[in-house]
Amino acid sequence: MKRQAWYIVGSALLCALGMSLLDGLVQPTYAVKSLLKLALFLLVPLLYYLRVPEGRALLRTLFTAGKGTLRRALALGLGVFAAILAAYFLLHGQIDFTRIAAQLSGNVGVNRENFLYVALYISLFNSLLEEFFFRGYAFAALARCAPRALAYAFSAVLFALYHVGMTARWFHPAIFLLSMLGLAFGGLLFNRLNETSGSLYPSWLVHLCANLAINTVGLLLFGVIR
Fold it and tell me: What is the rounded distance in angstroms from the CA atom of residue 28 to the CA atom of residue 5?
C-alpha cells in the first residue's frame, strides 16, 4: 500500500477505536464525548484532504449529489426506519430495553429531560459527522490509494468496532454479535451507495433515518412519547 493508505488506516483506527474505548471504559458525559468526537472525526479527515493534491475538489464532490440519487436513498432510509421500529415492537418483550435507558442515564447523563435534544443532535449532525469520517475518509480517501476491496472491508468493520464500546453492555452476547454484523453490513451498503453517487448524502440520508428510528425507540423508553 502507499504511504497515504497506511496513514489513513492508522489514523482512522486510532480515532475510532480510541472513541470506542472511551465509551466503554471512561464513559464521559455525552457533551464531553461529543466534543472529543468532533475534534477527531472532523479535524483528522479535514487535515488529510487539505494536504493532498486536489483534496479541496474531492471535498466538494463528497457534498454534491443528484436529485435522483437522493430520492432513492430517502426511499431506502424510510424502509430502514420502518424495519427498526418493527423490530423494536417485535422484540421488546424479549430484550430488556429499560436497562439501556438506565445505563444511558447513569453512565453518560442522558435522561428524559435532555433526550429530545440529544436525539436531534444524533439524527442530524452526528450521523453526518460519522459519514464524513467512515465513508468520506476511511472509505473514499482510502479507496484512492489502496485496493477497493480493502477500503470496503476496512471502513465497514471499523464502523462496527466503533460501536462496541457504547453497545457491549446493552444486549445478550448473541444479539450483540448480530448487531455488530448488521453494522458491518450497513457499512458495506453505505459505501456502495456513496461509491455509486460519488457523494456522502445518500448514506447520510439512510443513516439519518436509522438514527431517527433508534431515537424514536429512546423517546418511547424515556416516556417522552407514548
Answer: 31
Cα–Cα nearest to 14, from 145, 131, 161: 161
- Rounded Cα–Cα distance for residues 159 and 218 (Å): 22
pTM of the model: 0.90
Please report, for the chain, the start and end positions of each structural domain, with discontinuous segments joined by +: 3-221
* Of residues 150, 147, 138, the one with CA closest to residue 200: 138
What's the grid cell of residue 141? 480517501
Helices (H), 22-126: 30-38, 44-51, 55-62, 67-91, 97-103, 115-121
pLDDT digits (tens, 9 = 90+) for 125-177: 999 999 999 999 999 999 999 999 999 999 999 999 999 877 766 667 777 78
AA identity, residue 110: V
